[in-house]
TrEMBL record:
Protein name per Swiss-Prot or TrEMBL: DODA-type extradiol aromatic ring-opening family dioxygenase
Listed InterPro entries: Extradiol_dOase_DODA, Xdiol_dOase_suB
Family affiliation: Belongs to the DODA-type extradiol aromatic ring-opening dioxygenase family.
Provenance organism: Rhodanobacter ginsengisoli
Domain Extradiol ring-cleavage dioxygenase class III enzyme subunit B, first and last residues per copy: 31-236
């Protein structure tokens, strides 16, 4: 079996589910180019915990973890099955890597998971195992978490990190738009692309000190941490391929990365 790549997806606003735009086109094309996975392990920026947790529900519920959106958004469901046996394997891999994990049989799929999954695999027929991120533990921890998941790629499992390549919601009222982009967005996404192309893991793990406008692009870094999960899962010599899905609202870069 050929190893699958790992992916990092910028999931954007929950409204992406109703207005997929360029992101929807890019994710549909990506799914068509990939071998069909037997299962998906997904680290979302919207499941936060102090220590790694793994969702083992047989039928994960669709979580509408947002407010103030149109009623149509709350009617959407993503009824993909879970994979309890795979969840136990994920927990064992993390334990073996020294990343003590617990299994949560009740965890569903938050919008960081189900919104992009609806665009990748709209039939909702691929089993999903969600995993949490640990915002207090930083990039190196998440890179190690991804490395622990790397063997799954040889078993037909697609490892996905879901976040946002830039994420500063404090700037939503600052007047940025498609015509007036926030000045920090392009320098930051270009730096990330250059460091990934160069395989400069040390710089990436230290991005908050080294990247231009890092703290402006990510006042808190939970939306970038899934990138390190995806990069870690790809292996030491992986090639990064950026898929440009535009910049939403002038400040949310929607970059997607495929790591082979």
């Amino acid at each position: 079996m050929t190893a699958l790549p790992s992916l990092y997806i910028s999931h954007g606003s929950p409204m992406t589910a109703l207005q997929p735009g360029l992101t929807g086109e890019r994710l549909a094309a990506l799914a068509a180019a990939l071998p069909r996975p037997q299962a998906i392990v997904m680290a979302s920026a919207h499941w936060l915990s102090r220590r790694p947790q793994v969702g083992s529900a047989e039928q994960p519920q669709t979580i509408h973890d947002f407010g103030g959106f149109p009623a149509a958004l709350y009617r959407l469901r993503y009824p993909a099955p879970g994979a309890p046996a795979l969840a136990e394997r994920v927990a064992r891999l993390l334990d073996q890597a020294g990343l003590a994990a617990t299994v949560d049989p009740g965890r569903g799929l938050d919008h960081g998971a189900w919104v992009p999954l609806r665009l990748l695999y709209p039939q909702a027929d691929i089993p999903i195992v969600p995993i949490s991120i640990q915002p207090e533990l930083g990039p190196a921890h998440h890179h190690a978490l991804g490395q622990a998941l790397a063997p799954l790629r040889d078993e037909g499992v697609l490892v996905i990190g879901s976040g946002s390549i830039t994420h500063n919601l404090h700037d939503l009222g600052a007047g940025y738009s498609d015509e007036r982009q926030a000045p920090y967005v392009k320098p930051f996404i270009e730096w990330i692309e250059q460091r990934l192309d160069a395989g400069d893991i040390d710089a990436l793990l230290d991005y908050r000190r080294r990247a231009p406008f890092a703290v402006r692009a990510h006042p808190t870094d939970e939306h970038l941490l899934p990138l390190f999960v995806a990069r870690g899962a790809a292996g030491a010599n992986a090639r990064a391929r950026r898929i440009d899905a535009g910049i939403d609202l002038g400040l949310l870069a929607m970059d997607i990365y495929r790591f082979d």
